[in-house]
Amino acid sequence: MPPPNKNNPAHNEDIRKYVLKRDKMSCQWPGCGSSMNIDVLFLLEAEHGETDEKPYYNNGVTLCPKHMEIVNLHDKAFGPLIFDLIQLVEFENDLHATEMMYKEILKS
Ligand SMILES: [Zn+2]
Predict the structure, then answer these.
(1) Does a structural domain hold residue 3?
(2) DSSP state, 34?
(3) Which residues contact 54 (CB under 8 A, 6 or more apart)?
(4) 25 and 69 in contact (C-beta within 8 Å)?
(5) Does residue 34 fall inside a structural domain?
(6) Range of the structural domain that residue 50 is part of
(7) Ligand 1: distance of its center to the CA of 106 in Å?
(8) How far is the CA of 26 from the centre of ligand 1 (A)?
(9) How far apart are CA 51 and CA 79, in angstroms?
C-alpha cells in the first residue's frame, strides 16, 4: 500500500496513521519491536514551495524512545539508514500482502 496522497489538508496526520498501522505500533529498529511509548520519525518532503507552509511528511518509521534518541543524536549518520529502513519495512509489508493474496487464491 502506497503512502496516502498529499493533496489533503490532513496529509501529515494521514501519514502518521499510515506509518503506525503499517508498523503495527511497534519499533521497527532491527531486532527491537518494542511497543512502549513509541513515536513516529518522519521523513520530510525534500522540496516544498512556500517557506511558511508546513512541510509535508513524505513517510516515516515507528521507533521506541531509545532508538528515537539514537537517531536524533546522530541525525546525519542515520539519515540514509532511516531511509533504507523505511524501504525495507515497506518491502516486507508488500511481501506480506502478496503472500496473503496468494493464500486467498489457493484457498478458493
Ligand atoms: Zn526500539
Answers:
(1) no
(2) -
(3) 12
(4) no
(5) yes
(6) 11-107
(7) 36
(8) 8
(9) 22
Q: 60 CA distance to ligand 1 centroid (A)?
A: 14
Residue 66 located in a structural domain: yes
- In the chain, the percentage of residues whose pLDDT exceeds 90 is 63
Residue recorded with cell 505500533: 25
pLDDT tens digits, residue range 75-91? 778 888 888 999 999 99
Centre of ligand 1 to C-alpha 62, Å, is 9
**Overall domain count for the chain:** 1
Closest to 29 measured CA to CA, from 71, 79, 59: 71
- The sign of the CA dihedral 52, 75, 31, 98 is positive
Question: What's the predicted TM-score (pTM) here?
Answer: 0.78
**Among candidates 8, 18, 6, 10, which has minimal Cα distance to 62?**
18
Q: Is residue 2 part of a domain?
A: no
Cα 18 to ligand 1 centre (Å): 19
